[in-house]
Model the fold of this input.
Amino acid sequence: MHKMNQPPTTNHQPPTTNHQPPTTNHQPPTTNHQPFNPFSLKNKIILITGASSGIGRATAIECSKMGARVIITARNEERLQKTFSQLEGDGHEKIIADLTATADIDKLANSVDQLHGLVNNAGINKLLLPQFINEKDLNITFQVNTIAPILLTQKLLKMKKLRKGSSIVYVSSVAGVYSSTPGNSMYSASKGAINGFMKNIALDLLNKEIRCNSVNPGMVDTNIMEHGIVTEEQLEEHKKKYPLGRFGKPEEIAYAIIYLLSDAASFVNGTSIVIDGGVTIKE
Ligand SMILES: NC(=O)c1ccc[n+]([C@@H]2O[C@H](COP(=O)([O-])OP(=O)(O)OC[C@H]3O[C@@H](n4cnc5c(N)ncnc54)[C@H](OP(=O)(O)O)[C@@H]3O)[C@@H](O)[C@H]2O)c1
Done:
């Protein structure tokens, strides 16, 4: 029964609205936010030869700072350990190998995981005027500077240990390609040869999307001239030719290697980067 004078009950509910305060994604910025960095080597596994000193050591350390997992190799255990102890991050490995021994190159290729990058850096230099070149020195120079990088590349390719999209860097030199210095013909020949190899395999490996490039340093402050016949005075004299009045630092070569290993260099293939403080434009 209707009660009189009661307003009729209706279904007129005040309309429900969805006027909630708008939800937004405006979260306060998280502190883990990583800015995009095309030079990053995060999640990349890189094998670096000659990592017990000089340019190889600097390259290993700087690559680890850029997030790479590095596999470092050389002959001298103590010096290699010194590099190893300076690496940032986890998961790095060290492997003792003599690149003049084919069995050691095999061991190296067998022991590594699939790689995103290979830095063929190990090298030696012995200055000899052409009339004093001998087969023994010629063989060892070519074995370390030319044959070992070629064989290591070949074995890793054959074993499919270089992933699609990986990058191979050869540490060549301005010697033999861009400049000449007295008594340096053996070394120059070995470095010119590796640039020729690099330029051709850059073409051969296009279908695998593996990029190949070289860095070509001028004089860098390392131990490489220790076994030569160059005196401190001669080195000081040579330094005067350098427009900046100094030789390079190993890190200054490492940074170019990092660029070539990184995705920032994804359109760079078959090229030789000169890093010499401008000495070859002056000579
Ligand atoms: N420094 C320069 O002025 C300069 C200029 C242009 C190009 N480069 C090139 O840069 C690269 C690095 O040279 P660097 O100046 O850094 O010289 P470095 O300090 O003498 O280092 C050479 C590296 O090569 C390794 N190595 C030498 N013989 C080897 C062998 N038989 N098996 C395995 N590893 C071997 C050495 O390690 P272990 O002794 O422990 O084996 C060492 O780690 C070389 O290819 C060099 O030709 C250097």
